[in-house]
Amino acid sequence: xDSIFWLVIGILLMAVELVIPGGIVGLIGYCLFMWGVFxxxxxxDIATYAVLGSTIVLLLLLVTFFNHFSKTWIGKLFTLGQxxxxxxxxVSNDVQSDLQGKIGVAHTPLRPAGIARxxxxxxxxxxxxxxxxxxxxxxxxxxIGSRNIVRQQF
Length: 154
Description:
Layout: H1 2-19, H2 24-40, H3 44-68, H4 73-78, E1 103-106, E2 113-118, E3 121-127, E4 137-144, E5 147-152
Parallel strand pairs: 3-5
Antiparallel strand pairs: 1-2, 1-4, 2-3, 4-5
Helix pairs in contact: 1-2, 2-3
């Protein structure tokens, strides 16, 4: 009777996981379900092997499912099959390392991110943490990837 209780609680928690995803509730539910299987089989070595074996089989099935899901007919309904590549002309963000040291004007308030006008171009910038009012003179102190870090020029 005790094992049926754990099986039911485990199933209920795994069902809750389907409604409120996150992983922890489902994992606890699975563990309680397996505890119900373990106690239902009377404990001992055979029950341990049954629980471990079914867990390993389940993990292998999940790995196989997730590796091949996007190739199935239903997986194609849930996943995007297109890629945006540089070869097709897609560029995520232009890195402008030549901006370092250039002087411009804050086009919008920089709190701490905003837009600056540098060499007659509007550029996304971020300050080192200070707020800078629109119209203030700024200088680009560093370019890290696509982040243009500026400071107010006095």
